[in-house]
Amino acid sequence: MKSTLLLFVCFALSIASYAQKPDKTDVKFKIDFFPKEIISKEKLVNIAVSSNYQDLIAEREAEIQAMNDEIQAIKDEKANRSTTEKVANLFLGGGNEKKAPDPSTIYVPRLIGEETTAAFNIPGYTENNEVKGKVEIVFSPMNASGISASSFSYKPLLANVTVTNDKGQKCYEGVLGATSTNMTYLKGFDSWSEAYRKAEENAKNETVKVINKYLTDNFAYTTHSGERRFYDIKDKKQQYPEYHTAIEKVKMAFAYFSVPSKAAAKNEALKEAITIWENALKDLDKNDKNARISKEVAAVTYLNIAEAYIWLNEFDKSREALAECILVDDDYTKESNKVTSFLNLYSERYNKYMSY
Questions:
Q1: Of 31, 73, 86, 219, whose CB is crowded by the most CB atoms within 10 A?
Q2: pLDDT one-digit tens code per residue, 140-184
Q3: What is the pTM assigned to this prediction?
Q4: Least confident span in 87-91, 121-125, 262-266, 338-342
Q5: Could you tell me where the beta strands, DSSP code E, fall in 79-133?
Q6: Nearest Cα to 183, choosing from 143, 140, 129?
């Protein structure tokens, strides 16, 4: 009899320990994200591409011309030899012949200019060469070294990148390009110049990728799709109809994110959900884990409030709710930190855009 009673008590305690169960509800969203730095609110940008090594090209071309002159001089010398000299050289097996240089071993970089502009893009922007907001990309030549009979090493091209917004303010100035270690390019071509040209194209493409990524990460207007977490409450003993109602209002609000004409309705739905949660918190009993609004229920309720305030752009109120979440139940510190991380990212971009 005692064992049966003990089993019943344990079972009852087990049920009580799960009196309230926060129910994770991930709500999908799709929203335009503001950039870290703004080039133009009108989303227009002037992209200009050029190279800074015209003098090097002239120098290399002069080297090739000198080699070609030397080759011609050798040919002329052979043509002007006497019969005796030709016969003597024949018996010597050509051992006294001067070796002609190979002009194809000289790398003459190809100018990278406006024809490459189309390779660069900043999501959300339209290219327009009449506007003040500008991205200037100036390429340096490829660095080829370690030349041997069968291979050479090269590094990707680097470029000086300057970004200026439409107010004339410089947003970025620096050197960008692939930073990988030297890559070996085996000679599998008819000439060195052909191999160089292929390597140069590969090197340019690598740096284009690096620059595009930087421009996207820092200046793009991007559309973000994902899910944001809210909490409903489910329990067999107690009813939480107001939490279910609040979640439905949140879902409706998030459905309106991509509909500008529904901005007011979105905001109203979020405010109504916040009011529901704030009213529920009035019944908080921190000392009774089986209370209808226990500290765990309160913690997730504050997370709900914080999340809703993010999308109302009331960031200080969101931070207040996150602080209350940890104060009422520090077991939710990890979840609070996740919301804080997103809040900081979103608010920084939003505030910068609004104050531009």
A1: 219
A2: 998 877 777 677 778 778 999 999 999 999 999 999 987 765 667
A3: 0.80
A4: 87-91
A5: 126-127
A6: 143
